[in-house]
Amino acid sequence: MKDNNDMPGHLARRFQQIAVAVFLAEVGDAGFDLTPVQYAALATIKANPGLDQVTLAGLIAYDRTTITGVIDRLVQKGLAERRASSRDRRARELEITDEGRRTLRKITPAVESAQRIMLRGLSAKEGEDLMRLLHKAIAAGNELSRAPLREVQA
Amino acid sequence: MKDNNDMPGHLARRFQQIAVAVFLAEVGDAGFDLTPVQYAALATIKANPGLDQVTLAGLIAYDRTTITGVIDRLVQKGLAERRASSRDRRARELEITDEGRRTLRKITPAVESAQRIMLRGLSAKEGEDLMRLLHKAIAAGNELSRAPLREVQA
DNA sequence: GGATATTGCTCAGTATGCTGACTATCAGTA
DNA sequence: TACTGATAGTCAGCATACTGAGCAATATCC
Predict the structure, then answer these.
(1) Which residue in the set A7, A12, A25 is minimally distant from B15, CB to CB?
(2) Residue A18 is nearest to which of B5, B18, B141, comparing CB atoms?
(3) Which fold has domain A9-144?
(4) Counting beta carbons within 10 angstroms of the beta carbon of residue B14, is it exposed (0 to 12), middle (13 to 18) or buried (19 or more)?
(5) Looking at CA atoms only, how far is residue B45 from chain A in angstroms?
(6) If one looks up domain B14-144 in CATH, what number appears?
(7) CB pair distance less than 8 Å for A117 and B22
(8) pLDDT of A77-110, one tens digit each?
């Protein structure tokens, strides 16, 4: 019988599990309380001021029902703001706060350190290969999850 | 600013997200209601009859608090049994049921199909490379998560 | 043998992720 | 303008994962 550990799905789960643990440890040691998911959302809000929740979800491939709670927590921590859109009364425009900007800036070294640690078993070339292969597999499977990645339309 | 999509942590999350979606779709189409996590647990119980929950958790790198619920659901579906150990009254010995065995056998094609689909963007060699690199990164990071992989001691 | 430490398991609480349903709103069309 | 369909967001419910705490039982050490 094939070992679980030889299945890509199982390896995916395990790598993700380690990645999250490393991220939380590094960021926690730096004195911040922010999850990988919250970090990605906050960084994307900063890079795309005023975007709505669906667009944000598409940019980081989160489900729209997941993003609601993530933003709730960012708002609750004072890192982001959610306000009604004037163009479309269904939509909420998202903005990063000064506090959010400060947090992002100060947290960056820990985030970068985490990315290095989760690849620490690999050489530089192997790390690049892994990222390239993951990218390729993800691109091919993008439409297979309920929350595919969506580019911003011009 | 570095794009989220260039961070190994983000790629890990996305690949895992797709892997789970593909698994559920293939297994669901085959007429079964089993998650990737439940499948791995059930297959590991079958391969190691009578093992206790902590050992099971170690073999598939699940947290001990997570495994409780997973087993609850396997038992509830009639696929596994949990009974008190005679050697150690704290421990629960796990066994697969006939129904569980039948399910595992019938579900295998769908599981294998899912593994192929999640790598469909890659050539055979690229797929092997990805698995090898994931393996290596995971081995180096094994102790960094709360739920590391543990071999069975002889 | 008895105190102490460790271990197996469970539980409460929190954070992703998903399915499916629902409301409010907008867009296109007859 | 009224109808229809699509879209933005939320909610309830379920399944991982984790933190931290606790209980019961076993192991270890003096």
Answers:
(1) A12
(2) B141
(3) Arc Repressor Mutant, subunit A (1.10.10)
(4) buried
(5) 12
(6) 1.10.10.10
(7) no
(8) 999 999 999 899 999 999 999 999 999 999 999 9
